[in-house]
Amino acid sequence: MPGSHLRRTNESDTGRYQNLLGQTRLVCPAGTVVFLHHGIWHGGRRNDSDVDRYMFKIRFNPTVRQLRLWNTDDLYDPAVAAELGTRFPWYEHATGRLEIYNRVLLWRALIGDESYDPDYWVTRVTNRPTRVIAGRSLNPHAPAPTQETA
Amino acid sequence: MTTRQQVLVLYLASSALDAKVVGWSSYDGTGRSTPTTGDSDVPPYETGLDALADGWRLFQRPSSSRRSRATSTTSRSSSTSSSSRSW
């Protein structure tokens, strides 16, 4: 299921879906090697033929942080932001935006830039203003003025 | 004659019955077909309401899982009406 790798769920919840809008089918000749994010929803289909087919699954787990370990010339290309904002046919109208939010967090981890936030999705979710405008006389929660010392 | 059910489950984009179908599963109690994962890329109906209009009978709307769901939908199960579609 394209676009499913950051959706937190479990197989007992997803197992009920036989088909989802936007699904793709991995049909390939023998010897094909495919790379997938480990979190992407997937399933083996029933084999209705008389021929057994085998698949070898190798899981890679990073031992070091994957920080800028590739050609980084185009980190801030607008195409990156467009890719991070991709929506898929099965996404809910509003909840689907959480995928974009989670993708931006993943991208931040990969590029080491905690300020990267195209369309401000992370800011919209996590922003907690701390600046207090009203003075103490109007706002009992404002910090007490610091004592001036001579 | 024994009546056997065909069950069609439609997962909708929201909890409204006329919302768009984003997922679907079917189970055939008659044994005439054996639906499975990845059967088709096109939903059998565009909305839950379309299925009702085509004669499917709504018999259950299970509550959502307590855990986060694959899609925030209300699932809808329909069986063939025994009066209109008995096998």
Tally of domains of chain B:
1
For the biggest β-sheet of chain B, the strand order reads: 2-1-4-3
Number of distinct helices of chain B = 1
User: Whole-Å distance between the termini of chain B?
Assistant: 8 Å
Reading the helices and strands of chain A in chain order gives HEHHH
* Poorly predicted segments of chain B: 66-87
- Strand percentage of chain A lies at under 5%
The proportion of residues forming helix of chain A, as a percent range, comes to: 10-25%
Which percent range describes the beta-strand content of chain B? 25-35%
Oligomer: heterodimer
For the report, how would you describe the main beta sheet of chain B?
Answer: 4 strands, antiparallel
Q: From the helix content, strand content and strand pairing of chain B, which structural class follows?
A: mainly beta
Spans of at least 5 consecutive residues with low confidence of chain A: none
Rounded mean pLDDT of chain A is 89
Assign the structural class of chain A, choosing from mainly alpha, mainly beta, alpha/beta, alpha+beta, or little secondary structure. Answer: mainly alpha
Coarse morphology of chain B: globular
Order of helices and strands of chain B: EEHEE
Radius of gyration of chain A: 23 Å
- Report the strand count of chain B: 4
Largest interface: A-B, 24 and 27 residues
List key phrases describing it:
heterodimer, A: 150 residues, B: mainly beta, disordered C terminus
Give an overview of the whole structure.
By secondary structure, chain A is mainly alpha-helical. In chain A, about 20% of the residues lie in helices and about 0% in strands. Chain B has about 90 residues and is mostly beta strands. Chain B has a four-stranded antiparallel sheet with strand order 2-1-4-3. In chain B, β1 and β2 form a beta hairpin. The interface between A and B is medium-sized, with 24 and 27 residues.
Q: Helix and strand layout, with pairings?
A:
The complex is a heterodimer of chains A (150) and B (87).
Chain A: H1 11-14, E1 19-20, H2 78-84, H3 97-111, H4 121-126
Chain B: E1 6-12, E2 21-28, H1 48-53, E3 56-60, E4 75-80
Antiparallel strand pairs in B: 1-2, 1-4, 3-4
